[in-house]
Amino acid sequence: MPRPTVALRDATNQLTADESAAVLALAEEAASVDGSQALSEQFRLSVQSRQHAGVDHLLATDAEGLLVGYAQSRTGDGPPSGELVVAPAARRSGVGTALLASLPDGIRVWSHATGGAADAAAAFASANGLVAVRSLHVMGRALQDGLAWPPASLDGRYAVRSFERGRDEDAWLALNAAAFAHHPEQGSLRRADLVQRMAEPWWDPAGLILVVEADAPDVLAASHWTKVDPPGGDVGEVYVVAVSPDRQGQGLGRAVTVLGLDHLRALGLHRVVLYVDEDNVAAVRTYAALGFVDIEVHRQYARAEAVDRTASPAPG
Question: What is the pTM of this model?
Answer without folding.
Answer: 0.86
